[in-house]
Amino acid sequence: MSERGARLIKGATGEWEIVIGMEVHAQVLSNAKLFSGAATTFGAEPNSQVSFVDAAMPGMLPVINRKCVEQAIRTGLGLKATINHRSVFDRKNYFYPDLPAGYQISQYKQPIVGAGEVTIDLPNGESRRVGIERLHLEQDAGKSLHDQHPDYSYVDLNRAGVALMEIVTKPHMRGSEEAAAFLRKLRAIVRYLGTCDGNMDEGSMRADVNVSVCRIGGYDKFRETGELKHLGIRCEIKNVNSMRFIAQAVEYEARRQVDILESGGTIAQETRLFDARAGETRSMRSKEEAHDYRYFPDPDLLPLEIDQAWIDEIARSLPELPDEKKARLMAAGLSAYDAAVLVAEKETADYFEAMVAEGVEAKAAANWLNNEYFGRLNKAGLTVTTGPVTPAQHAAILEMVASNIISGKIAKDVLDIVWQEGGDPRAHVEARGLRQVTDTSAIEAAVDAVIAANPDKVEEAKKKPKLAAWFVGQVMKETRGKANPQAVNAIVNDRLGIADGG
Amino acid sequence: MSEPTEFTLAEARDAVRAKKISSADLTKAFLSAVESARALNAFVTETPERALDMAKESDARIARDEARPLEGLPLAIKDLFCTKGVRTTAGSHILGNFVPPYESTVTQNLWDAGAVMLGKTNMDEFAMGSSNETSHFKPVINPWRARNSNQNLVPGGSSGGSAAAVSGSLCLAATGTDTGGSIRQPAAVAGIVGMKPTYGRCSRWGIVAFASSLDQAGPMTRTVRDAAILLRHMASVDEKDSTSVDLPVPDYEATLGSGVKGLRIGIPTEYRIDGAPPEIDALWAKGAEWLKAQGAEIIEVSLPHTKYALPAYYIVAPAEASSNLARYDGVRYGHRAAGTQDLTELYEKSRAEGFGPEVRRRILIGTYVLSAGYYDAYYLRAQKIRTLIKRDFEQAFEACDVLLTPATPGPAFALGEKSNNPISMYLNDVFTVTVNLAGLPAISVPAGLTANGLPLGLQIIGKAFDEATVLRAGRSIEVAANFSAKPQKWWTA
User: A440-496: what fold?
Assistant: First the structure.
């Protein structure tokens, strides 16, 4: 099959492939709203962060917040996208109580950011590129509260006017795993950039998923020709607000479409709502019922003119992004898997980098975190930011290993102690006498004692050199793990007359 | 000394500054004139207490020798400007008893310059009208009547209340707004000076929006000098209005008397319209003669797309209005219909009850021209026309410095005469809308009377941000016309 990575659905009449595009609304990290100076803090008292502009009082005018524009440009650069030197704000007209002006200021025909791409990392280690169609700036609406009073609905305008980036992908994803991988990667990118906090629980990142199915080969034809006719008719699924729901929603919707097509029906282009409780999608409005938004350029705002110098300045301040960081870590000797795990979350990457900054060699730091610390965190339901051990504490432990003060085995015990009690790992090692024995004469004495007590094993070992390990183990046991394993190894081999590495 | 209410703004300024009259006395004289002129219905809200407080403060400043440029001068404010703590209606029922918690930039500039507010003037609802008959607060009556006639005439619109207040000596000067002629047309038919500055010259912040890309505030005064004085203190760049322009505001008064010698005056051929009263053409020709006599050069110019201006205007302005007026939904402020069962009914009833027929008509037109399938045919084409009209002016201004045109196609008409025929009403704007579409400055100056004794105006149109030359040319017309007629004060009888 040519559709590498495509997720297929088996129907009675043959196999179908799933094609997915996404529209992600990412709330811009900014202290003030897109067109007003009101604050944007999540969870504030209802209607406490509302300016006259946000409430659409008569005669009020929007003024663009430069910071939000900068964040959009930064995000565009992070998506390797074209930044448009001229873009236009349009009004999208519709009536709703949480939309005070009766229109949302958005960008329709001329968005601030054009085509770009995101590389997604799949669980099987492969990478794929998902095309970005555009990114535009728009205002969020307020919130209608229908459950506060039996007879009334209430409106909270705190969110009204908050800046959103709507990021639209091309239909380049081939299954729910890819859709989830895309969202994870996009989230990582905006969090690295500091342009969105990516908090899906608080609604700072929300996804609408466009799903269609087509016969095998249709997608490849679409990619060759760019013609949408090779794809099936899509349905837009709204309200898919967690990574887990994306998989559920896509699977349900694709199966629904295949069932319709196989029973001779046709797919109606429509907007559907994902019901997380039932795990299904439900029709929200058909194409015919779609609003006529009467878009037109907002006469209160001049076209947004962005000069190259500003774009260059922002580009220079761009941080290292996940893909670049991963490549750098791999160049430093990390496996693709280890590197991917470390860069996936900005906090994890920062944590790792902090260890490296403390002087830990990259590969040692990666191994230690992946093998020792992340497992402990997972088990305790914690993350690098909520966990009890700091990068400096890890570095101190690993530094003691590197300078032969403790063995790798003792290091794990020290990690447990630090986890429980906190404090300086060096102090714990001193206080508990965990410093490993590197004094050769002491080790020699211990080795000699074991040899003397086991003459039969000595004879066997001379024939089967692998038995040397048994002697090493005994010595380690006698020294309660504190003997330097390399030194023990060398002395055992020497006493038994075995060549090193035997 | 003449009656204080007959002062020009400049005369009053000098008299107050020279302590020949106190601001309090001047203000009281106007308050009493306002009170005795209620038959004109020029004011929606009178603010005598505020006026007297402001006058007192002004007198105190004058006593301390701290007079500001407009210290103690009583003005009337069109009810489209939001005034902090004073009801602002936009001539509409839907704003109900809306009291803004903020002050528009233009009015704040005026108060900062020391001016005194007498009250808020009546206007066509949301500035949509050319006769003041669409006001929810009943029409304004023009102080002027035809010779030997008792018939009430309209004061033009939409700034009809301001025009009547200036013309009837109820204030020294007034603010207006002009979206398609709403300052210049009422000024012309009420025998006063009205100026629409370049789009972007005055901040729109705090002015209830009608059509955002066309709306512009300006002065309505008894003389061109007064317009020069008032404009200087209305205009400013404003960080709260992205479309306001950061250019220095010149001292227009200082250059007012420079005359028109050597100035090239363009006469646009296309402004000769079929069926215009001969008096209009005759006055226009006279205006050209006056300027020529003062040393100007008269040049015929062409503005070929003029005939498309009115249709384009009546697409662009309603389109923007349909969106701008969506916020009046009965949810947060203003009128809310009682006893509605659901959201849609709340919207429909509140808006149906709150908006008058002309506003509803324009919302419908605007919604239609922006609809899917019609956008390209109407809105987009209108925008293209707009670009062509702008280019017409740019080309004309390569050959001349200002344009001279009639201000209106006729004098004040009777109440009800055109209110049932929107098209004939819209034709009032035929000489003025082009200027709004191109964003240019223009002034209407009273230049003569009809055979029936009703005032007519001439319009000077200038290059963008060249208000100074427009005012100079306007002053030359004023000098030559020597227009001194005043309406009979029939309303005090």
Answer: Arc Repressor Mutant, subunit A (1.10.10)
